[in-house]
Write a structure and sequence with these properties.
Blueprint: H1 2-41, H2 59-72, H3 98-106, H4 108-113, H5 117-125, H6 139-153, H7 182-215, H8 222-228, H9 234-239, H10 241-264, H11 282-288, H12 293-296, H13 311-318, H14 326-335, E1 337-338, E2 343-344, H15 367-373, H16 379-382, H17 399-408, H18 420-429, H19 445-448
Antiparallel strand pairs: 1-2
Helix pairs in contact: 1-7, 2-6, 13-14
Length: 450
C-alpha cells in the first residue's frame, strides 16, 4: 500500500510538472493576444484651434484639406519627406505671406513667371518640374490644405517614417491591422495538442499505478487477475472485422473529403501571386508614400474596371525620379523614352502585366458601383494592399463569398440621395433593422449574372 501511495505522489508531481509548460504557454499566448488587441484598437487623437495665423484649424476645415491633399498631392509630396517635391512641414513659414503661397498652389507657373524669388529658386532646385495648377479650388479650400499640412506636421513624425528599402521597393510594411495574427492562433493549436499529449501520458501513468495496486491485492480470483494482466494482441486486433471496418471508413471519409475540397477549389485562385515583368511595390507606393489607389487605377470611380495603369502615369514621377534604376529603364524601353534628351521614339510596345484578380465571364462586377456609390474601400476585397510588396489575391472572390458580403454589409445611405427612396421603403417595412445590400436586391441573380 505504501508503494501505491508513493506512486500516486509521483503521478501528482509528474502531472504538475507536465501541465506547467502548457499553462505557461497559454499564459504567454493570451498576453500576446491582449497586446495585439490593444495595439489594434489604439487611436490617434487629433484636434485644432484657431491661433490667429489665418490658417484654418477647425476639424471640418482640416478634414476637407486632408481629402483634397490625399486626392491630389500625395503623388509628389509628403509632410515630413522629400518625394518628387519638397517636404511640406512648415511650408506656411517659408513664404513671405499666405497670399503668395495660396497663389503658388493655385497656379505655380504664374507665380514663377512673375519673378517671385522663392518660387523661382524652388523651381530650379527641383529640376524645373512644374507643379500642376489647382485653379479649380477656391482660396479657402487651398488654405484648408495648408491647415491640414500644419496639423499633420505638429504630430509625431513616425507616421511617415520609411518602412525600409529603396529603389524599386521597400521592405514589407509591418501589419497594423486589427485582430489576432495567425501566428498566435497556430501557437494556441500547438498548445492544445501538447496538452492532449500530456493528458494521455498522465492517463497511462494512472493505469499503470492502478494495475500495480490491484495486483498487490490478495483476495482477487484468477479470472479478475487475468483481466487485469491481459496483453493486447495487436495482430489479432488488426485482423478483426471492426478494426478493418473503422480503417476502411476513415480512408473513404478522407478520400471523399479530399475530392470535395478539390471540386470546391476549381476556379478559386486565392493566394495567386504571379511574377510581373516589372516589379512594383504597393508597400512603397501606396504604403510608404501614401499614393491613392485612384491615382493609378483611374477607372475605379467611374467604370466597371479599375484598369491597369498606363505607363504615362508611371512617367509622371519617374521621368525625374530613379531614372538610373534598371527596373525604371524597362519602362523607358517599353515606351521608347530617352531620359537624357527627354524625348519619345516611335518604337513603343505594351508592358505585358499579368492579371491577378479575374472573375469568370458569367459574373458581372462594377467597380464604380461598389467604390463610388457603395463607398467601399479597396481593402474590402483586395486586402491590405498598401502592405503588399508583391500583390496577391487575398479573398476567395467566389459566389458564396460575394453573397455573404451582400448579406452582412450595411448600406451607407447617409448623405447619398441614390438611396433615399430605398431607405424610405425599408424603414416603412422594417424600421428596427439597418438596411443591408440584400434588402435592396443584392441577392437577385440578375444583379451579378447576365
Amino acid at each position: 500500500m505504501n508503494d501505491c501511495c508513493s506512486d500516486f505522489r509521483k503521478i501528482t508531481f509528474l502531472t504538475y510538472l507536465l501541465l506547467l509548460p502548457a499553462f505557461l504557454a497559454f499564459s504567454w499566448t493570451a498576453s500576446l493576444a491582449q497586446d495585439a488587441a490593444a495595439d489594434s484598437t489604439a487611436t490617434e487623437a487629433s484636434g485644432g484651434g484657431d491661433d490667429g495665423s489665418g490658417i484654418p484649424s477647425s476639424p471640418e476645415a482640416i478634414a476637407e484639406g486632408e481629402s483634397i491633399f490625399n486626392n491630389n498631392c500625395t503623388v509628389c509630396h509628403a509632410i515630413n519627406q522629400v518625394v518628387v517635391g519638397p517636404a511640406l512641414a512648415g511650408v506656411e513659414n517659408r513664404w513671405e505671406n499666405l497670399e503668395t503661397l495660396v497663389a503658388f498652389i493655385s497656379n505655380s507657373q504664374k507665380v514663377i513667371q512673375g519673378g517671385n524669388e522663392y518660387a523661382v529658386n524652388l523651381y530650379n532646385e527641383y529640376n524645373k518640374t512644374l507643379m500642376p495648377a489647382f485653379s479649380d479650388y477656391s482660396d479657402e479650400q487651398i488654405l484648408n490644405i495648408v491647415g491640414y499640412i500644419k496639423a499633420e506636421a505638429a504630430k509625431p513624425a513616425q507616421a511617415e517614417t520609411p518602412t525600409g528599402g529603396g529603389g524599386e521597393g521597400g521592405e514589407q510594411v509591418v501589419n497594423g491591422g486589427g485582430g489576432i495574427p495567425s501566428g498566435y492562433l497556430t501557437a494556441i493549436i500547438v498548445g492544445l495538442l501538447v496538452v492532449l499529449v500530456l493528458i494521455l501520458l498522465v492517463l497511462v501513468l494512472i493505469i499503470s499505478v492502478l494495475t500495480r495496486f490491484l495486483n498487490q491485492k490478495q483476495d482477487l480470483d484468477e479470472a479478475d487477475r487475468e483481466v487485469i494482466n491481459q496483453k493486447v494482441d495487436v495482430q489479432k486486433v488488426a485482423k478483426s472485422r471492426p478494426f478493418i471496418g473503422i480503417m476502411l471508413f476513415i480512408f473513404l471519409a478522407i478520400t471523399v473529403k479530399l475530392v470535395l475540397d478539390g471540386l470546391y477549389s476549381v476556379g478559386v485562385q486565392q493566394g495567386y501571386q504571379p511574377k510581373q515583368p516589372i516589379p512594383f511595390s504597393h508597400a512603397l507606393h501606396a504604403g510608404q508614400y501614401e499614393i491613392e489607389c485612384q491615382y493609378c487605377h483611374t477607372g475605379v470611380m467611374k467604370a466597371k474596371s479599375a484598369n491597369i495603369p498606363s505607363a504615362n502615369i508611371c512617367m509622371n514621377c519617374h521621368q525625374q525620379i530613379k531614372t538610373e534604376s534598371p527596373q525604371i529603364q524597362k519602362i523607358y524601353a517599353a515606351i521608347d523614352f530617352d531620359p537624357e534628351t527627354q524625348t519619345y521614339g516611335d518604337n513603343q510596345k505594351p508592358i505585358e502585366w499579368v492579371r491577378i484578380h479575374n472573375l469568370p465571364d458569367l459574373a458581372y462586377f462594377n467597380h464604380a458601383q461598389h467604390v463610388n456609390v457603395g463607398g467601399l474601400e479597396c481593402q474590402t476585397c483586395h486586402g491590405e494592399i498598401q502592405e503588399m510588396e508583391v500583390v496577391y489575391q487575398q479573398s476567395e472572390l467566389t459566389m458564396g463569398w460575394c453573397i455573404n458580403c451582400h448579406r452582412e454589409t450595411q448600406v451607407n445611405a447617409e448623405d447619398n440621395a441614390y438611396y433615399d427612396k430605398l431607405l424610405e421603403l425599408h424603414n416603412t417595412e422594417n424600421p428596427k433593422e439597418p438596411m443591408k445590400v440584400e434588402d435592396i436586391g443584392g441577392l437577385e441573380c440578375s444583379k451579378c449574372h447576365y
